[in-house]
Amino acid sequence: MTEQLVGELYRFELKFKEPAMTSRGTYLTHTVWYPVLKGQGKFALGECAPLPDLSADFLAQGADEAARMAGYEQLVERSFETLWRKLKLGEQPDFEQVRSYSSVRFGLECLYQMYRAPSGNAALLWPSDFTQGKCDLPINGLIWMGSFEEMAQRIACKLHEGYHCIKLKIGAIDFERELELLRQLRGRFSPEELELRVDANGAFAPAEVEAKLAALSQFSLHSIEQPIKAGQPELMAQLCAASPIAIGLDEELIGVNDRADKATLLDTIKPHYLILKPSLHGGLGGCAEWMQLARARGIAYWVTSALESNLGLNALAQWCATQDITMPQGLGTGLLYTNNLVSPLMIRAAQLHCDLSAVPDYAAYLAQFLAHQAQLVARFEA
């Protein structure tokens, strides 16, 4: 008798080692969902990891946090059940059905990739020189917001670890103090020695943004992400045309899922960079579409995690290694949580390294992890 293909959905709460502060607020925990397929000689799972104040698919589920949590879980359950039924029938899943649900799509895409991977190693999804340990991925060192002293200490740690590209979250403390941090860095390191990126997360008001960009420009920054809030395309277009600093779009891309709408946004704003996060920007398929449209317009891009656990980060890094990347990526978030999963990824010499031998029986480890630490919320087996 053929073994059934069983679907299970788990919920898990990740806990930050330190409060993760942005200009929008502070994260202490991060709830994620793991859809799992097992049976018929298979064991596969993905990660759906919405950000409560950013993910369009999460925010659309209700008027408050409790309603959104419940509605999102039901959305993942329905979408996962549809995929499970198709696979039971030997059919290909249709990710276009979840095009508008970025974090759900990312989780199901990674689940399906693990399900169809022929290697038998649950840690290996997209084979490449990266997964064979032949090359590492360049990454930036991420400096979370905090007090002046906290940010200065974090910067010192990243420099000690050998990073040549640092990204600072700005917009939460006094702007003059943030300028002082940048002034100290540039006093020690030239642009050739240290690439500096900043991310404002939409913190600058329209009336002040031009003056702040001018003040920041004295430090030879590589780029600034999302200087103003999303949803102001005309102003953003003006800034991109005149800014002394290259501007990258991040939040501006959230919820823009139709290909024609993506093209219109890029043609209207004409940004210098896209900062792509599959959990926010249409899953892997949606980000591949953004990449294609960007290349056709001479717009550069890099890929960044959206605070997934090591499970999602492993999938994202492996996928990223199969893309055409030419600059440091934002994939150094694997050490953020106290209760993160084991991973084949590690940071070595300020680059992301993959060692599949570090988790020789990843499927067994994941099964045990789910059984003992995550909460089962749905099961499909009929």
- Cα separation of the termini: 15 Å
If strands are numbered along the chain, what order do they take across the biggest sheet?
5-6-7-8-9-10-11
Query: Spans of 5+ residues with little confidence (pLDDT < 50)?
Result: none
Q: What gross morphology would you assign?
A: globular
Query: What integer is the average pLDDT?
Result: 95
Q: What radius of gyration results from the CA coordinates?
A: 21 Å
Summarize the helix and strand pattern as letters.
EEEHHHEEHEHEHEHEHEHEHEEHE
The helicity comes to 25-40%
The fraction of residues assigned to DSSP E strands is 15-25%
Name the descriptors.
7-stranded parallel beta sheet, alpha/beta, 11 helices, single chain, 382 residues
Structure explained in plain terms:
There is one protein chain. The strands form 3 sheets. A 7-stranded parallel beta sheet has the order 5-6-7-8-9-10-11, with helices on one face. 36% of the residues lie in helices and 21% in strands. The two termini are 15 Å apart. Strand 9 (247-249), helix 8 (259-269) and strand 10 form a beta-alpha-beta unit. The chain is an alpha/beta fold.
